[in-house]
Amino acid sequence: MKNFNRWATAALAIGASFGVLYGASMTHPDMSHPKAMHTAFGSSEDLAFAEDLWKKLQKRGFTDTHGNLYLGGPPHGKVREVNEGVIDGRLVIVKNNYGGKNVSLEKVRKNPRKYLKAVTVMVKRPGYDPEDQDWFWIKYAPDGKVMANKKGMRLAGRVAKGKPIGCISCHRSASGNDFVFSHNKTVNAAVTWIGKDRERMMTLEKMMNP
């Protein structure tokens, strides 16, 4: 009986150690390789990339350029605008999401900062997530902090990958197989391009015909 108890205790210890190691590898994968896959998001590497990108978005005026406002619904703001451009050779699409009591197009035009609730971003990262068109997803608060979901997971990276609800599953339904609704033939969102028109034409052509 003593031998059995010793064996059981040892087995439990080994199992617990394996569980800790396995769980850690799933939650904090080695992201040194751009094609590394993981089920979670919001890793330290994801957050570092998001923080660096926010600084560049601010410098280029992606969040401060206002123009083509339109109405929408959940999960984004009731009033929105989309800015698009290239940073470090990567296509970046920024959606400013506005909300609040009695929010309207007119009110947002007069005071966009007052009604800004979130900034959602999708940026191309070649080799990052090939099966989902290599998009990296981020949801920022107005001050640039990466927001979290109800479970406390920071929303940066392959957000909700493999889940029936979330950034990736929703954008899969965009026509054209590029995960971008604003590139659809019929859309209610007029996009403001941050940069030169020739740059836009070349970037979109390359993305649509990889």
Description:
The chain is an alpha+beta fold. The chain has one domain (38-208). The chain has 6 helices and 7 strands. It has helices at 2-27, 44-60, 105-110, 112-115, 167-171, 197-208, and strands at residues 70-71, 79-87, 90-98, 116-124, 135-140, 156-157, 191-194. The longest helix is centred in the N-terminal third of the chain and has 26 residues, at 2-27. It starts with a helix and ends with a helix.
- Give the total of beta strands: 7
Structural class: alpha+beta
| The number of domains | 1
H/I helix tally = 6
Largest sheet: 7 strands, mixed
Tell me the fraction of residues in β-strands, as a range: 15-25%
Shape: globular
Which regions have little confidence, pLDDT < 50, spanning 5+ residues?
Answer: 2-37
The SSE order reads HHEEEHHEEEHEH
Head-to-tail CA distance between termini: 66 Å
Task: Give the helices and strands, then pairings.
Elements: H1 2-27, H2 44-60, E1 70-71, E2 79-87, E3 90-98, H3 105-110, H4 112-115, E4 116-124, E5 135-140, E6 156-157, H5 167-171, E7 191-194, H6 197-208
Parallel strand pairs: 2-7
Antiparallel strand pairs: 1-2, 2-3, 3-4, 4-5, 5-6
